[in-house]
Amino acid sequence: xxATISGRLLLLLAGIVLAACTSAAGITGPPPTAPPGGAIxxxxxxxxxxxxxVVPAGTSFSLLFENRDSALHNVTIYDDAGGQxxxxxxxxxxPGSRTYAVPAIPAGTHRFRCDVHPQMSGTLEAGPG
Length: 129
What we know:
Helix content: 10-25%
Strand order of the largest sheet: 2-10-9-5-6
């Protein structure tokens, strides 16, 4: 009897966790337009919609981040040398969006990821704008 209750409780908890990391209904379609001189990225299904971002080097830019999931997500940009964060975006639950004001990033290839779901990652190329 106790084993049956424990098994049911475990299944219920697994379902709650899975539901918290699934896509929210109602927001679909193509991503919105990137801000001038900036970039855009969408989180949906606990994944980013692209693995590569191209931004101008040496100048600040806007990064429009749309979270279509009901899970917490953000975007953090790391340097290419030691893995130190150069920018940490606000973590928030979707559906919704934020426009991050990202400071100047040096030229080169860098890494970005969601700090809540590290498997959500990609490369950011900062080059001539």
